[in-house]
Amino acid sequence: MTTIISREIQLVSRPNGLPTAANFSLIENELEPLTDGQVLVRNLYMSVDPYMRGRMNETKSYVPPFQLGKTMEGSAVGEVIESRAEGFKSGDIVTSTLGWREYFITEPQAVHVVNREIQPLSVYLGTLGPTGLTAWVGLNLVDVHAGDVIFISGAAGAVGNVAGQLAKLRGCEVIGSAGSAEKIEFLQASGFDRVFNYKDAPVLEQLNRAAPDGIDVYFDNVGGETLEAALSVLRVHGRIVACGGISGYNAEQPAPGPSNLFNITTKRLTMKGLIVSDSLHLLGDFEREVGGYFQSGKLKNQETVVTGIDRAVEAFLGLFDGKNIGKMVVKLDGTVDD
Ligand code: NDP
What does the pLDDT average to over 265-291? Predict the structure, then answer.
């Protein structure tokens, strides 16, 4: 095997507030030679995700913090280019969580073979990957069913857009919010019933207009003012999926919670938190249902692709600036699968 140099992105300092490029470093890592029982993988696509911001803090939450001076972990799709492991061959397409790097050598347990016929392969990071799984698990968590009026924030993003499409397939009335005119047009084209730009006017005012008779379910991706508005507009026995709170991820001081939490008591609301990694045992069911919708064309995959490992940080920061429609993915130079 010739020497392989992998370019990788490391976290080198912990951000205060919004991260900057100075918190990261692009390094070159010379790989050790491949040994028996190992595979060499070249990444094709890497995922950048909002949850990574939480892991940049020193404090442990549900996952340990990223370590300084180590390559960023995260989901990726790659191709086996050499194998000395039984059951793996060159050309196999695999997913991993080894993160922001061009190449890696690993034992087979750290990778999962996927069907290379499904295109684009980046769909394994979005609609058929962790964010699609999050959307599906979130809907199941509060039993979203036909007739529900559901409001989804962050609706043009990776989780929100799949949640909206799946809710439509279940026979729901779907309301979505997002942060630009272009995203509003995209949501209309995706089949959302009513949509609004949360930057245009107070969320409560716009949500009341979109749902004059209230909502049954709120799928929360952003927290803050939007959660407060949803608490006011939810009907008695309404349900909330507490999936994310991106409006607060870069806050230097935690913002006070919603002023109207007492709605949970008066309306007998249910609010359930979700961490997608708790549901990996449901992957088979997810792949059957959501994979089936995708392959039959009932579910559309939407993504924003940034090319080059040297642009991974820019892609990540773009999440906090609303730069993505659908899943934000980084395509590595030289990828020719699509
Ligand atoms: P998205 O694809 O939705 O990307 C982030 C989007 O958030 C941006 O495009 C932007 O869209 C929006 N945004 C950024 N800042 C703000 C803000 N201050 N207020 C409102 N919206 C904002 O990301 P994902 O789909 O991957 O994730 C969505 C949410 O789900 C996140 O909170 C994430 O942490 C959470 N999540 C939770 C998981 C779990 O297991 N609980 C797993 C995966 C994701 P816009 O232009 O509309 O503002």
Answer: 97
